[in-house]
Amino acid sequence: MSIVSEAAEIFSAVLSNDAWMISEALKTDAAWVVGAFVTLIGGALIVLVYHYVPWIERSLEATIMTSTYLLIGAIIFVEVFRRFVLNVQAPWSTTLPPFLFLIMTWMGCAYNVKLRTHLAFSEFRMAMPRPAQFLCLTLDALLWLGFSWVVVVTSTQVAANSAANFQIMLGTDNVLQWWFLISVPLAFLLIAARAMENWLIDVKNLMTGKPLTGAVAIGSD
Fold first, then answer.
1. Using CA atoms, how far apart are residues 71 and 65, in angstroms rounded to an integer?
2. Rounded distance between C-alpha atoms, residue 188 and residue 148, angstroms
């Protein structure tokens, strides 16, 4: 079967809204081709959203990170009190926080891609000539896009398989795991968007003569 026909099956499965069909379709080689287009086009669309809705550009990842962090803390605090003082405990209180932590972690990754705090090696790059600095920044963008492509494909396969098998979050009766697992490919679309956004800024800085590389620190937004 050709890549084109396999890709058509993926789109057909998605339109059918059948988890088992989606899971089976994503096992083909075409998943990597479709995933590449989704990563690039999805990232580009998110960049446009960032451009036209500045609040989202400034606050999306930070808001999600803070919300999930506070929710994790609240669940743990309340359930520890209930367990050791009242001798009762919600059965989902030990299984929900790890899923929330998953969301917080990858949103934090996207946030730090925005800030360029992932192994930036700024001191070394600042000593390089401008062409070499721009080459390194371009390599950064390509690597992030490559990582995002791989994770978007593989994590979507995991989420689809979870949905196809009706995997329930432990401690609940009807909360499906894929509702949380799908946050991983979505987060990596944000990472792809941040990589594109940063590279466009780098191109503008190169053309205008502005500094390409500077000192960065976590939380310096």
1. 10
2. 5
Under 8 Å between Cβ of 180 and 158: no
**Domain-wise residue ranges, the chain:** 3-52+122-208
Q: ∠ CA(108), CA(112), CA(214), 5° rounding?
A: 165
Render pLDDT for 90-141 as a digit per residue (tens, 0 to 9).
999 999 999 999 999 999 999 999 988 876 777 787 888 888 889 989 999 9
What SS3 class is residue 92? coil
Q: 49: which 2 tokens?
A: 């959203």
Token look-up 């390409």 returns 212
Give the Cα-Cα-Cα angle 119, 199, 109 (nearest 5 degrees).
40
Q: In sequence order, which ranges of the chain are alpha helices (DSSP H)?
A: 3-16, 19-25, 30-52, 54-81, 96-115, 122-126, 130-164, 178-181, 183-208
pTM listed for this prediction: 0.91
3-state SS assignment for residue 209: coil
Q: Taking CA 26 as the corner, what is the angle to CA 175 and CA 191, rounded to the nearest 5 degrees? A: 75
